[in-house]
């Protein structure tokens, strides 16, 4: 097992650090930047289906559901196709409206999640085209889907999903870009610009990982907190949900993720000097608004841990701690902002002596209801 961990103390840490290469493996052979081509057989072979679809319904659970939420923002922005994101467990039992003009995308690392399997079964019965985004090759969902794309993240052993999330977002971004170009919503120059930016992401993930020691020091300060709040807006709202889920799962600290602007509709009542609030405050998209949310937290004595872009000055003046990530397109920023949140939950869990790779009560894949 030590050999499998490749010198890391835990699989989760290894998998966090594998993300630069995992993302490269995800787009290798698919994204040809110089030629300006995205090749995805599962989409190419059914392009008419995609171009004539009325909407996309994404079904998933847990972290994969969070990747689905990010994808909703990306698909609607780039491809202008309406997207709904559903918890597979709710979808399967609520008599959903599904037609043969719908495309159901099932996202699942393991490809074995019982609720996601049942959701695609239902979708198929109603005539929808089912596209699977799975990591495990040959898994049940990948076999039961009409078409699909593997994430190629490599084995994910830690129960807390890390590289599965970033590679799912990568696959879904490629799909959205491809479809946006095909249906005329993404101009040739925007398309190229997105490809070039996506190609820079692995190096930028590497740069984000260099904050590890700094994040460890922050973790030491907050490891005994009873609660955490995570806030983000736009493309980074699902990242806030994912950050909170990671912390809950492996450190057993109660954490909630919220869209930053929703704070004043309830969670702000929780804020006092005992409450660490992790705020994603990167430059592009709603920056000023998030800064004003940070001011509100500060005036209630909340402790602010902000994820900012390199060179940020504004948030630095207000926050108790800042963690820097490189700048990128707003749409791609979840691939970077999620990295410090993974490290934060990892270090806190280690400091609390928790079983990081196999947290209590959790299984890697939930194959029963
Ligand atoms: C993630 O950290 C969790 N362990 C869990 O939420 C997981 O993402 C969920 O069970 C879905 O699994 P899947 O991607 O294999 O379908």
UniProtKB/TrEMBL annotation:
<dbReference type="GO" id="GO:0004360">
    <property type="term" value="F:glutamine-fructose-6-phosphate transaminase (isomerizing) activity"/>
</dbReference>
<keyword id="KW-0808">Transferase</keyword>
<feature type="active site" description="For Fru-6P isomerization activity">
    <location>
        <position position="364"/>
    </location>
</feature>
<feature type="domain" description="SIS">
    <location>
        <begin position="46"/>
        <end position="185"/>
    </location>
</feature>
<keyword id="KW-0677">Repeat</keyword>
<feature type="domain" description="SIS">
    <location>
        <begin position="218"/>
        <end position="359"/>
    </location>
</feature>
<comment type="function">
    <text>Catalyzes the first step in hexosamine metabolism, converting fructose-6P into glucosamine-6P using glutamine as a nitrogen source.</text>
</comment>
<keyword id="KW-0963">Cytoplasm</keyword>
<keyword id="KW-0032">Aminotransferase</keyword>
<keyword id="KW-0315">Glutamine amidotransferase</keyword>
<protein>
    <recommendedName>
        <fullName>Glutamine--fructose-6-phosphate aminotransferase [isomerizing]</fullName>
        <ecNumber>2.6.1.16</ecNumber>
    </recommendedName>
</protein>
<comment type="subunit">
    <text>Homodimer.</text>
</comment>
């Amino acid at each position: 097992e030590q050999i499998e961990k490749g010198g890391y103390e835990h699989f989760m840490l290894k998998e966090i650090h594998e993300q630069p290469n995992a993302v490269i493996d995800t787009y290798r052979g698919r994204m040809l930047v110089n030629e300006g081509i995205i090749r995805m057989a599962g989409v190419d072979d059914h392009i008419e289906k995609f171009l004539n679809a009325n909407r996309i319904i994404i079904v998933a659970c847990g972290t994969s559901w969070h990747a689905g939420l990010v994808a909703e923002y990306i698909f609607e922005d780039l491809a202008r196709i309406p997207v709904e994101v559903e918890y597979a467990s709710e979808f399967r039992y609520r008599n959903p409206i599904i037609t043969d003009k719908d495309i159901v995308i099932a996202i699942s690392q393991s490809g074995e999640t019982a609720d996601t399997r049942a959701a695609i079964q239902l979708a198929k019965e109603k005539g929808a085209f089912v596209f699977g985004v799975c990591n495990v090759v040959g898994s049940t969902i990948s076999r039961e889907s009409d078409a699909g794309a593997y994430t190629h993240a490599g084995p994910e052993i830690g129960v807390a999903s890390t590289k599965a999330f970033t590679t799912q977002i990568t696959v879904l971004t490629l799909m959205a870009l491809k479809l946006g170009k095909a249906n005329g919503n993404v101009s040739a120059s925007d398309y190229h610009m997105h490809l070039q930016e996506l190609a820079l992401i692995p190096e930028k993930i590497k740069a984000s990982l260099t904050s590890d020691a700094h994040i460890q020091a922050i973790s030491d300060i907050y490891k005994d907190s009873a609660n955490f709040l995570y806030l983000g807006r736009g493309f980074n709202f699902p990242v806030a949900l994912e950050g909170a889920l990671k912390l809950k799962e492996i450190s057993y600290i109660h954490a909630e993720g919220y869209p930053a602007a929703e704070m004043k509709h309830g969670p702000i009542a929780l804020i006092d000097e005992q409450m660490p609030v992790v705020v994603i405050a990167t430059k592009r998209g709603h920056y000023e608004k998030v800064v004003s949310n940070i001011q509100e937290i500060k005036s209630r004595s909340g402790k602010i841990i902000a994820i900012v872009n390199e060179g940020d000055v504004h948030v630095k003046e207000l926050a108790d701690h800042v963690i820097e990530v490189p700048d990128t397109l707003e749409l791609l920023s979840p691939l970077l902002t999620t990295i410090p949140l993974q490290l934060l939950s990892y270090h806190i869990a280690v400091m609390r002596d928790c079983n990081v790779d196999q947290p209590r009560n959790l299984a890697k894949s939930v194959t029963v209801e």
